[in-house]
Every structure is written in C-alpha cells, then in structure tokens.
Amino acid sequence: MAWTRDQMAERAAKELRDGFYVNLGIGIPTLVSNYIPAGMSVQLQSENGMLGFGPFPYEGEEDPDLINAGKQTVTEIPTTSYFSSADSFAMIRGGHIDLSILGAMQVAENGDLANWMIPGKMVKGMGGAMDLVAGVKKVVVVMEHSAKAEPKLLKRCNLPLTGAGVVDMVITDLGVFTIDKKGGGGMTLIELAPGSTLDEIRSKTEADYAVANTV
Amino acid sequence: MNKVYPDAQAALAGLLRDGMLVMAGGFGLCGIPEALILAIRESGVKNLTVVSNNAGIDGVGLGLLLDTRQIKKMISSYVGENKTFAQQYLAGELEIEFNPQGTLAERIRAGGAGIPAFFTRTGAGTLIAEGKEEREIDGARYVLERGIVADLSIVHAWMGDTEGNLVYRKTARNFNPMMATASKATVAEVEHLVQPGDLNPDHIITPGIYVKRLVHVPNAVKHIEQRTVRKRTAAPAGTGEEI
Question: Which of residues 1-30 of B touch A (CB under 8 A)?
C-alpha cells in the first residue's frame, strides 16, 4: 500500500515553512497547494510572471489575462504581484525562491535530474525547468518510484539532463530520499511510505543509497 | 510624430521581409499580439525565424503562421500541444531551437539593453551548454548565452497612449516588455488607446521610446488554453475542477 498521488503531495507539503516563496510544477506538485497548513504563509510563484496566486476562478469568472504556468485560469489574492518573464526568472535564477517542487523522469544518486527530453520522441521543450533547478534554493522531486518495470532512481541518468547535481530530495510513492548534492554524500533513504519495505525499495532502485537510522 | 496606424496591416507596412527575425510576445495564448500575427499571415512574408516562448496552438496565435508555412525556425522554451508544429518538425520542414525559459527571457532583455552575452547557471552540464563557452565563477559552472536583437517585435498591451507608452494587464505582461526593447522596430497592439497624460507615468511599464508603431485593437479576442474553474462551494486553494 504505497502513497497515492495526494499522499505524495501531502508529504511534499511537509517541506514548506512559514514565509516560503514556492514554485510548484505541473502534475502531482500542483496538488501540494491543497496541503499548505492553516496559518502558514506560503506565496506561490508562477514563472509566467505572478507571485501569490489563488485557487481556480468560479465558473464564469475566468480571465484570459490571468493564468498560471500550466496555462490554467487562476485568481488573484491580496498579496499578488505581476512582473515580466525576465523579472520572474531573475527571481528564480537569483536564488530568491525557497523551494521548487517538480516531477521527473529520472533522478541520479548525485542529484542529476532528467525531466524534459526522450531522444527519438517529439520534444516539447524544457520550459522553465532548467532555470528552476539551477536557481531555486531547495529542489524537491515528486515522482512514481519506477516507470512500469524501469527504475527511475539511477546511478546515472541515461536521458538528457535538466540539471546536473540539482536535486535535494526525492519523494516517491514508496518513500523519501535526501541527496547531499553539494557535499557529495550521496543519497539516503529517510522515510518509508506505509506498507512499503526496505526489500521492495531495494529491488526497485538502481541507485546506491544509505538507509537512515530512523527508518 | 504620429505612431498610431489605422489597422494592423498598415502598422506593419514596410517592416516585413522574407527571412527576417521576429519576436512575438505572449505566454501560451495569454498576451499574444494576435491582430499583428494575422496581419503577418495576410502579408505572405515567409522563411521567418520567430522568437516566442511558445508556438500557439493549432489555428490560434503563431499556429496561424505554421498553417501557412511562413515560419522556418522557432526559438522557444516549450511548444506543447501543437499538431501542426509536430508534423512540420518531424517532416524536417521546421527548425526548433529550445532555450530554457529564463535564458530566453534574459537573452531578449540583454539584447534590448545592449548586453551581447551573459553567463548563467541554467543549463550547465546539460545539452544546452554544448558548443557554448563555459566558465567556472566562484566555484560554480556557468554557460555563456548571447543577447538577441530582432528585426521586428510584435507585442500586445492592455493600454497605450499615442506616444507608445504601454501598460500590460495581469499575466498578459510576460515576454512583451522585454521584446518591446529588443528589436529594430517594435509594433504594439493595444486594447485601449489613450492620450498622453491619461496614463499615470508611475504605472507605465514600457516607455514609448521602445515603440515605433501602435495599432488600436478594441475588440481583441482572447483565448483560454486551459479553462479551470471551481464550484461555488468553498474549496481550498488549487482544488478546482477542470472542465
């Protein structure tokens, strides 16, 4: 009984801190906004030029000039500010965003991330992912532990990289890993999802990792 | 000097030639200069290289210029769900140069600001860095990226005065302000055309010096790519239902 998509998002939300500015990717990361603890001030950044956004609009109140980076209609909140794409990525690249939560195809034990391109398939582009992982203070990946039978946590990514040595934490449906990307201390399993076992994770993980005492 | 032209075709007259480099504002379908794109389509100009974060969708925005095969090459960060784009790309009829979105934004900003190149962390150690100068600065790897200056920029603004001072609305700002600065000629379409003095000078985002020509598009049709809404019952942030 591994974590569901929502439970993975709920676990990712534990990385939020009061006062954080956060960028959420498309998919499971978007669900993290449902689990911001009451009373905690978290401003969500959307890389198309908006800081502080609210929920989807009520039916009939959609505004074509007000969208998030997934091109979905959203709403303004009292803290909202708007800015250009250059200012938005200055914010991202300049290290002003505290946390980026995004999906991945592959993560390597040294923190390398691949999530934008499969050679031989139609490539849609990297959007803002390369800038986010290069510039945001803490990068958390939320993804399924394996793709069908293929492991996604690898010794080395075999897909083209989005960033080299950029991932701090990986949350999968089976557990949580930290990566010491700066210190070169490798990957450590720090939590098991309810019902998942060390043996199951070992069998579905190519990467080398330590197991924290607390697990 | 009058910068205001009666329609989009007139505003582009004399500025278009085959093979030129054009920047087009917008993110997805938000804040795209659609009247000017349509006028480019009508002009028949071809072999364009277009700098734009996205490539529109089938039949909308830059998708209109893909349909007519007027675009030779796109410089974009994400081309998403555009079937025409995919077909032409896979048939080898269309080139694409992917830039990370922040690198694209900064290349345009730099071009407009007279900065020919800059170092960025983005893309270091990836395919994007191949063939580019890399340098270690303060212990981290950086990639040299070039500023871009286009022959023509087409942008969309919410309000503009006859001097070309522009104000954008909400997330329709996106790439428009940088693009307005980064070309030999910028043509802006504005939803509301006002007289000098009507805009609060403190609120102007693009000063008129960057805008060569203007066209009023009072009935601009705006598109929503992903219409997401929530029911009237109170729901926590981000839990809207897609329809």
Answer: 27-30
Q: Is A214 exposed, middle or buried (0-12, 13-18, 19+ CB in 10 A)?
A: exposed
Verify whether residue A206 is a known catalytic residue. Answer: no
Residue of A nearest to B225 (CA): A71
| Long-range pairs, B114-120, Cβ under 8 A, ≥24 | B114/B147, B115/B147, B116/B146, B116/B147, B117/B144, B117/B145, B117/B146, B117/B147, B118/B144, B118/B145, B118/B147, B119/B143, B119/B144, B119/B145, B120/A93, B120/A134, B120/B145
Minimal Cβ distance to A56: which of B28, B78, B240: B240
Please identify every stretch of chain B with a pLDDT value under 50, giving residue numbers as ranges: 240-243
| Cα atoms found within 13 Å of the Cα of residue B103, Cβ hemisphere only | 32
Please say whether the beta carbons of A102 and A130 come within 8 A: no
CB A66 within 8 A of CB A76: yes
User: The complex's ipTM?
Assistant: 0.95
Look at residue B68 in the predicted model and tell me its pLDDT: 96
Cα–Cα distances in angstroms (integers) from residue A146 to residues A98, A116, A172, B34, B164, in the given order: 28, 17, 9, 43, 54
β-bridge pairing A21-24 and A99-102: parallel
Q: pTM for the whole thing? A: 0.95
Q: Considering chain A, what percentage of its residues have pLDDT values greater than 90?
A: 93
**Which residue is listed with tokens 């040294």?**
A110
Write the DSSP string, A76-99.
Answer: EEEEEEE--HHHHHHHHHTT---E
pLDDT of residue B122: 98
